[in-house]
Design a protein that fits this description.
By secondary structure, this protein is of the alpha/beta class. Helix content is 24%, strand content 26%. It has helices spanning 13-31, 52-67, 119-129, and strands at residues 8-11, 43-48, 73-76, 107-115, 136-144, 156-160, 167-172, 181-186. A five-stranded parallel sheet has the order 3-2-4-5-6. Strands 1-8-7 form a three-stranded antiparallel sheet. Strand 2, helix 2 (52-67) and strand 3 form a beta-alpha-beta unit. It is globular. The two termini are 26 Å apart.
Length: 190
């Protein structure tokens, strides 16, 4: 993939892999390490469309390789839960929500590649509660950029990256036919 002039590479594919492994190990350590399958908490991963999905899959793969256990994975679209839905010039695309497991009383780990302002996670929390009441919701993110507009923090973070406020971070994934990478790009006015 050729970089556009306004795109600045801030994480290579190797750094992406290291950050994901750090997140995956933290999830594994909390819920699986030193336990038998009978002792595992009812953990499920819920990837926020679109960049949270590859992260969920890679965390699940890490856990499967360590334990042999297949953590259930779902997808969550937060488009209609966004707090800017009425003020945007263009509506966001609606994507699939697919939760093939019961979240009632379980542990749901929301995944999103980048924690930027906290607004996406706020919307995701609203969306999740429309599907049930988990016993616990955790947040796993590959990158925390630290510019919060809501009092939301990730439980598992792969890396902290600071970029100027006038830029945002975006990901590229091999799952979407692009080399893994994280880029700083100018913010687009809505």
């Amino acid at each position: 993939m050729m970089e556009e002039p306004e795109m600045q590479l801030v994480m290579t594919d190797e750094q992406v892999h290291e950050a994901i492994e750090k997140v995956a190990y933290a999830v594994y350590a909390e819920f699986f390490e030193g336990k038998t399958e009978a002792e595992y908490a009812p953990v499920a991963l819920l990837g926020i469309q679109t960049s949270g999905i590859p992260l969920s899959r890679r965390i699940a793969k890490f856990i499967r390789e360590k334990t042999g256990y297949d953590v259930p994975i779902g997808t969550l679209d937060i488009s209609m839960y966004r707090d800017d839905i009425g003020v945007r010039k263009v509506l966001p695309p609606i994507r699939e929500t697919n939760i093939p497991f019961d979240i009632e009383g379980g542990v749901v780990i929301l995944t999103d590649a980048i924690l930027q302002s906290g607004r996406t996670i706020r919307a995701a929390l609203d969306a999740v509660t429309d599907f049930g009441r988990p016993a616990m919701i955790r947040l796993a993110t590959m990158i925390d950029r630290g510019l919060r507009e809501f009092p939301i923090r990730a439980d598992y973070v792969g890396a902290h990256i600071e970029v100027p406020a006038e830029k945002r971070l975006t990901t590229r994934w091999t799952e979407y036919n692009q080399p893994d990478g994280v880029y700083a790009v100018p913010k687009v006015k809505q």
